[in-house]
Known about the structure:
The chain is an alpha+beta fold and 93 residues long. It has a domain at 5-50. Helices cover 14% and strands 22% of the residues. The chain has helices spanning 44-50, 77-82; strands spanning 5-11, 17-18, 35-41, 71-72, 87-88. Strands 2-1-3 form a 3-stranded antiparallel sheet, with no helix packed on it. A hairpin with a 5-residue loop joins strand 1 (5-11) and strand 2 (17-18).
Amino acid sequence: MKKASKTIFTCQSCGSQSPPSGWGKCADCGAWDSFVEERQATGRLARESAMPLWRPRPVPIDSIDIEHEQRLLTAIQEFDRVLGGGLVAGSLV
């Protein structure tokens, strides 16, 4: 049985991909007539090519070094407790 291929359109200006449609304008960058039709393989071969070449290995949680970060308290005791003592600068919660 032959595997079907999937058609996708890729914007040559920004690399955005979208399913086939009648629009000629890229929704991401606004470029006109910049789409190129591509066929993508489906099935096992497509899944294998999408897998990363490097895979991280799990490590025991007790072997992770904990860095002591300065934390910002939110004045919501339970929230601060769940976060491990408050918000860390640069983190996303």
